[in-house]
Design a protein that fits this description.
The structure is a single chain. The strands form two sheets. Strands 1-9-8-5-4-2-3 form a seven-stranded mixed sheet, sandwiched between helices. A two-stranded antiparallel ribbon has the order 6-7. Helix 5 runs parallel beside helix 6. The protein contains six helices and nine strands; from the N terminus they run H-H-E-H-E-H-E-H-E-H-E-E-E-E-E. It is globular, with a radius of gyration of 18 Å. The chain has a single domain, classed as Type I PLP-dependent aspartate aminotransferase-like (Major domain) (Aspartate Aminotransferase, domain 2), CATH 3.40.640.10. It is an alpha/beta fold and 206 residues long. The longest helix is centred in the first third of the chain and has 14 residues. The structure holds pyridoxal-5'-phosphate (PLP). The site of pyridoxal-5'-phosphate has 15 residues, from helix 3.
């Protein structure tokens, strides 16, 4: 039996990585940040077509920042996708908020806009935010979800951690929310060694 171990997501290093590491040492820009991170943020914003992007340590941190910016506090409701990775909804708990899980529709497996609408009508208390995830790179029915959030005047957080590069109606995912989160952690379709989370403020958002 072949006992060679197959690693999950082992790094692929090229000459450029070493060049930029060396450059960071040579110019003493190892900390706090530096031009590589500035450039990374600028290029990422340009790529997805957003006005601004900030690099954080993880997609989870990007989602947490978005939840804080929606002013979620103890007891506040947040309508969330239910079929997703736990990081999509964990930040709501970090702030003491209460997740209301919205089930999926059968086409994209993401948040069902009809059930979201039902939740808006059912709950007397207005939610502080809606968090929609694009699971496995497949966009949710974003136009309908954006419309509903506009109608009810509730900020939308788009969790595009798994959908960097996927488009919906020719527009990059990660640009539909009031705030958006991407992830470049090792398991994602595009990765980076260090800064794995991107938070962006929706220039064209609801
Ligand atoms: C849907 C989803 N949201 C959020 C995250 C969190 O991203 P990170 O691992 O960079 O914290 C992930 C993956 O890890 C994810 O798949």
């Amino acid at each position: 039996m072949n006992s060679k171990r197959i690693y999950l997501s082992s790094p692929t290093m090229h000459d450029l990585e070493m060049k930029y590491i060396q450059e960071a040492f040579d110019t003493n820009w190892v900390a706090p940040l530096g031009k590589n991170v500035d450039e990374f943020e600028r290029e990422m914003a340009l790529y997805i077509g957003e006005g601004y992007a900030a690099a954080l340590n993880s997609g989870t941190a990007a989602l947490h920042l978005a939840v804080k910016l929606c002013d979620v506090r103890a007891g506040d409701l947040v309508f969330c996708s239910d079929l997703t990775f736990s990081a999509t909804i964990n930040p709501v708990s970090y702030e003491g908020g209460v997740q209301v899980l919205i089930d999926s529709e059968g086409e994209s497996w993401n948040m069902d806009p009809d059930l979201l609408e039902k939740a808006f009508k059912t709950y007397k208390k207005k939610p502080k935010a809606v968090i929609v995830a694009n699971l496995y790179g497949t966009p949710a029915k974003l136009d309908q979800i954006v419309e509903l959030c506009k109608h009810y005047d509730v900020p939308l957080i788009e969790d595009a951690a798994e959908s960097l590069g996927a488009t919906y109606n020719k527009r990059q995912t990660g640009t539909f929310g009031t705030y958006n989160a991407l992830s470049l952690v090792v398991l994602k379709n595009r990765t980076s060694d260090r800064y794995t989370g991107i938070w962006s403020e929706g220039a064209k958002a609801a």
